[in-house]
Amino acid sequence: MTSSPRLPLLAGLPLAVGAGLAIPVQGRINGALGTRLNDGIAAAVVSFSTGLVVMILISLLLPRGRAGLARILPAVRSRAFPRIYVLAGGIGALFVFAQSFTVGILGVALFTVATVTGQTVSGLLVDKLGIGPAGRKPVTAIRVIGCLLTIAAVAWAVSPRFAAAGGTPGMADGGAGPDGPAALLVPLLLPVAAGFLMSFQQAMNGTATVHYGTPIAATLVNFVAGSVVLWTAYAVKVSVAGPGNPLPAEWWYYLGGPMGCVFIGLGALLVRSLGVLVTGLGMIAGQLLGSLALDVVLPAPGTIVAPATVLGTILTLAAIILATLPWPRGALRR
């Protein structure tokens, strides 16, 4: 096992925010690809497959990547960590599939609230259980308040998208506009589940990174496992319903995978230093900042940048600071 120094909070948190910036870019690309192909599974397969190619090249070309490759099998064979951790990429596959399948139905706003809610709740749970390499972290009142404020702030930040469509999810973001609340139940549960499992994925990747000696190897294993899951699901889908539309020629449709390499790799690196909850909250802040930047620079049809969007993003940053500051031991004791 190779030990690497832990990053201080002031260095690690900005990196988590930077990793989160890739999430809305990937979501925009994968959602558009899913619509273009008329097949959410195919879009997820394309995203994961391009990411896998990128990680194979990085692992072979960089000395640190080659060293990590050499440690994967010995770490798994010696049971340095539970073997199920190598399947963490299946969670990433579920998240990418949720993006590709539900963004067009729910819209970016509702998808964001659903994933943030699931990820924030599970971040507290994973830290409490001590699944990640940072060990156990108590569920203090300050952390709970910070999480609740984060969810509320994210909901406020995306509220103008709902208002623009008279409260109908999907329409504000270019979605299809479901017939009623019942039609949203399954599409809504999918991103909630994907967000909830993301904290477990980060904890598993962080633990694997400690034993591989580099997040490059952990990210590669993620993309291998996720690609196997998605290609299997796609083969079943094609055998039942046939293929969707042909692949587009535009190059930007294939950038979703490299975006995934960024936030999976940085997440695996940071959870050892920051813990799962703080890493997730930092990525949520980056996700909102990235979404706001996309809405300003490359707005989608129907996009609105309202004061609530800006103020909600600022409140999210304040909530994350509240949850991550080293408060005195007696402050709002649980």
Number of helices: 11
How many β-strand stretches? 0
Major sheet attributes: none
Query: What's the mean pLDDT score?
Result: 82
Structure write-up:
Helix 2 (22-37) runs antiparallel to helix 9 (256-274). With 334 residues, this protein is an all-alpha fold. The radius of gyration is 19 Å and the shape is globular. Helix content is 74%, strand content 0%. It starts with 8 loop residues before the first helix and ends in a 10-residue tail after the last helix. Residues 167-172 have low confidence and may be disordered. The longest helix has 41 residues, at 89-129. It is built from 11 helices and no strands.
Give the topology.
Elements: H1 9-20, H2 22-37, H3 40-61, H4 63-77, H5 89-129, H6 141-164, H7 181-212, H8 215-241, H9 256-274, H10 276-297, H11 307-324
Short description:
The protein has 334 residues and is an all-alpha fold.
Name the features.
334 residues; 0% strand; mainly alpha
